[in-house]
Amino acid sequence: MNTFIGNHLLQRITLFLVLIMSMMSFVPNVDASFVPSSQSSSVELRAQDMTSVQNTLESKMVKERLATLGYSKDEINARLGLLSDGELHSLATQLGSLDAGSGALGLVIAILVIVILTLVIMKMT
C-alpha cells in the first residue's frame, strides 16, 4: 500500500513538473537595454505638442467656435491635460498638416479643426 501511494504521489509530482516546465517554455525571451536620452525626451515632445495645439486654439475663429459650443478656455485646457502623450501628438500632427488657407478653404480647415477638437473633447467625457 505504501508503494502504491508513493508511486502515485511520484507520478502526480512528475506530471505537475512536466506541466510547469512546458508552460514556462511558452514565455517569450525578452531583451532589454538602455534608451538613449535623445529618445527618452517625452516631456519635451509633449511640451512641443501642447504648444502647437495651444497656438491653434488661440486663433480667432477657433476661439469663437469653441465659445459658441459652450467651452471655456479653462475647460479646454483641463481636457487637453487629460490627453495621453500619443493622443496629444496625434492631434498636434493633424493640426500641423493643415494649411492655413483663406476664403472658403480657410473656413473648411477651421471647421475640420473644430470637429477634431470637439471629437477629442467628447471622447474624453
Describe the structure.
- With 125 residues, the protein is mainly alpha-helical.
- It has helices at residues 2-24, 42-57, 60-68, 73-81, 85-96, 104-124.
- The longest helix has 23 residues, at 2-24.
- It is elongated.
- The model has no long low-confidence stretch (mean pLDDT 77).
Chart the SSEs and their pairings.
Layout: H1 2-24, H2 42-57, H3 60-68, H4 73-81, H5 85-96, H6 104-124
Helix pairs in contact: 2-5, 3-6
Q: Number of helical segments?
A: 6
Estimated helix fraction: over 70%
Portion in beta strands: under 5%
**Radius of gyration, Cα only, in angstroms?**
28 Å
The overall pLDDT average reads 77
Cα end-to-end separation:
68 Å
Low-confidence stretches: none
The 3D shape can be described as elongated
The secondary-structure class comes to mainly alpha
| Strand segment count | 0
Question: Gist?
Answer:
This protein is mainly α and 125 residues long.
Which features would summarize this protein structure in a list?
125 residues, mainly alpha, 6 helices, 72% helix, 0% strand, elongated
